[in-house]
Amino acid sequence: MTRNTKVTFNPTKSSIALTAQTGGIYLYGFSFILNPTMGCFFCCKFCYSPISLCKLIKGNRDSFFEEVTVRLGVPEQLDKELSKYSILPQHLKRVQINEHSEYYLPQLFSEIRDQNQPDTLLEILNIFQRHWDNGNKWMPHILTKSHLILNHLDKLKEMKEMVQVEISFSTEDENKLRGLEIYTPTIKKRLDTIEKLSKEGIFVRVMAMPFYGNSNDLNNLKQMAFARGAVAIKNKGLNYYN
Fold this sequence. Notes:
Layout: E1 6-10, E2 19-20, E3 32-34, E4 37-38, H1 49-52, H2 61-64, E5 67-71, H3 74-84, E6 94-97, H4 106-114, H5 120-133, E7 139-144, H6 153-158, E8 164-168, H7 174-180, H8 187-199, E9 203-211, H9 215-227, E10 232-237
Helix pairs in contact: 3-5
């Protein structure tokens, strides 16, 4: 199927990299979130990002799924902010990456190569690693649905003491998945990714949020993922009103 997708690289300097979470630290929460990109080509039907980011994105809901913008100024700004917040207690030095947008997209990596652009997320990981090595110990948590996180496997291996990866699933059934997540990688690819990451000693958690299915479906997903090396799971049902 032919799709209209576009990747742009925003050369302007970002005024902020880390977004502080409001409302306190709740059960599944993080002190800060970090989105290297804006937009996503996966077109999940349940995606809330176009709603929560309506003041930041242009156009209608569809535009969020048609154009991805890489925020080139984020790594330099992040470096400053990690130093600025270095006095925080250790339990607050946690950052969820890709909370609103997906970085590990095939179109994005293709454009990085074709346009000779920097790999922004790799630069971000380098900055986290350097601060850790200098005693400013932040822990990045990378959320993704994509096997393309393996493009950064060598770096993640170097950072395995400080990094956690969260692989997202909305169901354990491939047929259901294709009706919910239009262009995402298959469940098999995600399970294979869990196995490859965990074999390198990298902490992998299943993110079943939102999850479409009952407790038996969730248990099936847990068993499949844990058999591949996942060591934790988060869960919240798809129907937020139930």
